[in-house]
Amino acid sequence: MENGYSLLDSTMYALIVRLGSHKRQIAAGLERLGLRLGQEVYLAQLWRRDGLCQGELAERTKVTAANITQVLRGLEKQGLVVRRRDDADARVQRVWLTDAGRALERPVTEVWHDAETAWLASLTPTQRKAVARLL
After folding, report:
1. pLDDT tens digits, the chain, 135 residues: what are they?
2. Are 67 and 58 in contact (CB under 8 A)?
3. Is 71 exposed, middle or buried (0-12, 13-18, 19+ CB in 10 A)?
4. Residue 42 near residue 57, CB atoms below 8 Å
5. pTM
């Protein structure tokens, strides 16, 4: 580019490279639990508040209604969630965790915690404070 911007020298590239191995660590941990990377985010929303309607879940995870339907279909097939019509409004479908979905909270959280701990350990205390301020 004309202004001297280089992808390889960019802040975003450095961050992605730095987080890449930790993302792979999370993906491998999730795979051992029978999940694909990304599915845990939907489950985490339900661990926080079970029974969200599909629209709320899509909004909280920043995906479209079409995407949420596809993701939920997969989670249902795995026996981790069920969708049921709302008692008060039959147009609304709510998403509920199954026992199997609830049982994943601790092991999934541990996978994420271990990866985050490893990433933070690679930063100096000053860098950790800077990251916390930025987020």
Report:
1. 568 888 898 988 888 888 888 999 999 999 999 999 999 999 999 999 999 999 999 999 999 988 999 999 999 999 999 999 988 888 889 999 999 999 999 999 999 999 999 989 988 999 989 988 988
2. yes
3. buried
4. yes
5. 0.86
